[in-house]
Hints:
By secondary structure, the protein is an alpha/beta fold. Helices cover 44% and strands 17% of the residues. It is built from 10 helices and 12 strands. The protein has helices spanning 2-20, 45-59, 73-86, 102-110, 135-149, 167-183, 199-212, 224-236, 252-260, 272-287; strands at 34-39, 63-68, 90-94, 115-118, 129-133, 154-159, 186-190, 218-221, 244-246, 264-268, 295-298, 302-303. The strands form 2 sheets. The chain has a 6-stranded parallel sheet, sandwiched between helices. Helix 9 (252-260) links the parallel strand 9 (244-246) and strand 10. Helix 3 packs parallel to helix 4, helix 5 (135-149) runs parallel beside helix 6 and helix 7 (199-212) packs across helix 8 (224-236). The longest helix is centred in the N-terminal third of the chain and has 19 residues, at 2-20. The radius of gyration is 24 Å and the shape is elongated.
Amino acid sequence: MKFKKMVSIVLVALLFLSLTAGCGNGEPADEGIVIGMANLALGDYFTGMRNAVVNAGEDRGWTVHATNADGDDAQLVDHVENFIAQGVDGIIISGAWFNDIPAALDAAEAANIPVVLVDRMFDSQNFTAWVGPDNEFMGHQIGEYIVSQLPEGGTAVIIRGGPPENTIGLNRTAGVTRALTDAGNFTIEVSPDFAGWSTDGGKTAMENMLARFPHIDVVFTENDSMAFGAQSAAEDAGRSDEMFFTGIDGANPAILAILEGGNFKATGHNDANVIGAEGVAVMARILAGESFERITVMYSPIITIDNAENFRNAGIWE
Length: 318
């Protein structure tokens, strides 16, 4: 009887250990999951997105393989198809300005591999879930802010990131344009050159606009990096006091610039860290067979001197 009792105790202990393995010892319960993270391009915001996904996935015990297509559409598709061939458990795509990859998404669906898009939603509706901001809403907030600062109107310059089909930029500019048009007293001048979402590109585009227009009241750029470039061009031309600058993304340098009280006045909160982490959380619910929101719009408030202190360090993307 003592022997049987001892065997029972051992069996119960082993059962308890098997049930608690991966939980009670601090190891994640979903250890062993492999995720592919396909990135069209990296740099600033998109590097932060990649890192947020990798870090959040690894915190769950996942293995996350991240790629970089260096802005090459075909290479991004190849990376997605390679993930499918490898039989990963899920794919997260940060498509930046890329528009559509229906064939790759169809292949993922055929292989029963869920796809979560972060930040950029493709034209194709064949994806499992999307997490990102309402870009037109962010742009409209910036536009309303500009109207509040220039009640008598003025000349507004808009610098776009490109390329022409990039819905992120299109929607941001559409939001700003709608607010300024509704005000009825703004002249809107859109740079004919795309600035490539970079500081250097923003500077070059702004130099051209400064040469064309003798007076500019405000500049809106579709991201913060281009705003810094435009700001630099105005400073070089000795016209900094003539205008103020606005952007979107809420990068920490932009927040600090707003707090300094200079002519960088507003940005939109579009936190890569938050979006990336939420993308992983949605993927985790999908893989666990739990209910999930197919479309998750992240909260994206405008950041001005009135609330910038609350967002200090929020836009650090490492």
